[in-house]
Amino acid sequence: MNMQSTIIGAPVTQIEGPSKVTGQTRYAADVDLPGMLWGKILRSPHPHARIVGIDASKAWSVPGVKAVVTGQDAPGHLMGKVLRDMPVLCWDRVRYIGDRVAAVAAETPEAAEEAILLIEIDYELLPAVFDPMEAMKPDAPLIHEDVASYVGAPVDVLATDVHNGQTRLAWAKGDLDEGFRQADIILEHSFAVPSRHQGYLEPFASVISIDDTGRIQAWCSSKAPFRARLQLAQAMGLQDEDIRVNVVSVGGDFGGKGDTRDLPVAYLLAKMSERPVKIVMSYREELTASNPTHPTFATIKSGM
After folding, report:
1. pLDDT value, residue 2
2. Across 17-46, average pLDDT
3. How many whole angstroms separate alpha carbon 183 and alpha carbon 304?
4. What is the rounded distance in angstroms from the CA atom of residue 155 to the CA atom of residue 152?
5. Full residue range of the structural domain in which residue 261 is found
6. How many structural domains comprise the chain?
7. Is residue 121 in a domain?
8. pLDDT tens digits, residue range 129-159?
9. What CATH number has the domain bearing residue 274?
10. Which of 123, 221, 263, 273 is 20 to 30 A away from residue 249, measured at CA?
11. What one-character-per-residue DSSP string does 222-275 give?
């Protein structure tokens, strides 16, 4: 029997092709709501420092500024995919270059940018670490004093014997010793891979609108809308049924857009200003404060 397929060997039209090439595809940064403000975030220039004081009063002097928030407006509010260890806005300490410290919402992005530059942060610089191997040395500065205290901490597999350690996992299948004994060749090498950004074209955008009843409409560049809803609810102490995450197209992901990023900050600004707020990360922010793949140090032993 000779069957001719209409799929195999035939060209397939991309479903989203026409809308993309005609400019009709809608991304989070394209969301435009009545009365919407532009949000900008002031981020830490230091890899590790204690926040001694914050003076945001001058930010209010910029025409068009409608909201200014700092870590003092959300103390104790932490976020994360599983382990909630990242402050929505830092109130006592910053732990990496790009950590969120304060934010502004204004009528224009230029006004918001001008305002965050007027926020004065008094930092006490602390010793920092820059790779996992250095961080595990006994005399390295401790970045998180009590990992077990965080919500979502893997308490059953915590690496309590490793300085700055988080998790120790072991998995085995079969008799490894016997396998290596029978191997003709055994190779063992160590590899180091640096942190790297996923390189998507669309910078992450977050939009929040809150109605008179407190219900929240959200748009963001996340591939996981239900996770975004859950993370926003957990970070800000909200009920997830009061949040609707509207799905929009994602301009590239490659493993980098599975979290909420700045959505909780947009919520704080929208709540204070009582107006919708949009935050769009710059590419500089993407490279310093987004969701890159972490650096990896691996030793691999294989027998053949």
Report:
1. 67
2. 95
3. 5
4. 8
5. 28-127+198-289
6. 1
7. yes
8. 988 889 999 999 999 998 999 999 988 899 8
9. 3.90.1170.50
10. 273
11. -S-HHHHHHHHHHHHT--GGGEEEE--B-S--TT--SS-TTHHHHHHHHHHHTS
